Amino acid sequence: MHHRPIPGPDGLFNVSRQPRFLVDSSAVGWDGAYFTDIQAAEEGTVEHSHTRLCIQHASVPFRTRELRRDAVWTTVNPGLGVWQPGDEQRLDWKGGGGRQFLFVDPARVEQILESPARLQRLQHRTGIASPVGEMIVRALACDLHDGSPAGALVGDGLIVALVAHLRGIDLGTPKGAGLAPTVCKRVQAHMQEHLAHPMRLAELAGLARMSERHFCRAFRASTGDSPHQYLLRQRVERAKRLLAEGRMPLCDVAQSVGFADQSQFTRTFRRHTGVTPARYRAGC
C-alpha cells in the first residue's frame, strides 16, 4: 500500500487515505511547531515513526488496530493523544470526524519545560480527558481559522501553555509574580514601537530576561492580559486614533497597526469595539 506524506515539515506522518485539510499553521510560522485541523477519512492506515512531540485531539470516538496478525480493534475515546519523538504509530483506523494535530520540535519542548529530562515524562497515551488541554487545542484552531490577527504570538503562547499543562506544570498566577515595573514598561514600550510588525513570544520574553513560560504568567499578572490580548488591544487603540484623524484609507490603517489585510482588521476591530472601522470613523 502506498502512503503519502501529510503536508507539513518533513512529511509529518504517512497515511493511506488523505484527510480533508481545513487550515494549518504554515503561513503563520509558529516557533518550532506545526498545527493542522482536518476532517479524517472514514478508514485507512497510518505508518509513522514520530520525530517530534505529537499531540492529537479527536472530537469523536474512533477505532484502531495495530498492524500485526493477532491485533484486535479497540475504541479510542474523544480527547487528547500524545506521542513522544521515537514512538511508532502503525495502525489501521475506522471512523472519521474532526481531528487536530500539533507537532512540536523536541528542542522547543525542552525550551518550554526548561529541562531535557521533563520531555521524557510526557508519556504516550490516547483518549486523555483534559478539558483544559482540549480548550487550548480548540483555541489554536480558532486562531488559525480567524486569520491569526495577532500573528504568531497567540500560537506561541498557547503551545507553551499546552505542553506545560500536559507535563502537569501549574501556569497559575501566584501573588506577587508579576514583572518588575521597569521591565513591564520596557516590554510595553517595545510592543508600542513595533505594533505594525510581527511579534514573537521569545522576543518579548528575552526583553524581560525570562523563560517564555514564566513571562506569560508574569505579564498577565502585571497587565491583566496575555501578551497577545495586550497587543491586539493596543493595535485597536492606535487604529481608533488614526480613524479619528480621518485622512488615512482603511487599508492603510490596517497595515500601519499590524493587520494582514483590511478584512482581518475589520473583524478584530468590531470584536473589540462593537462597530466596524468605517462606522467608528463616521461617528467621530
In words, what does this structure look like?
With 284 residues, the protein is of the alpha+beta class. The protein has 3 domains: 163 residues, Jelly Rolls, CATH 2.60.120; 44 residues; 54 residues, Orthogonal Bundle (Arc Repressor Mutant, subunit A). The chain has a 6-stranded antiparallel beta sheet, with no helix packed on it. A 6-stranded antiparallel beta sheet has the order 3-4-11-6-9-12. α6 packs across α7, α8 crosses α11 and α9 crosses α10. The longest helix has 19 residues. The chain starts with a strand and ends with a helix.
Brief overview:
By secondary structure, the chain is an alpha+beta fold. The chain has three domains: 4-166, Jelly Rolls (Sandwich), CATH 2.60.120; 181-224; 230-283, Homeodomain-like (Arc Repressor Mutant, subunit A), CATH 1.10.10.60. It contains eleven helices and twelve strands.
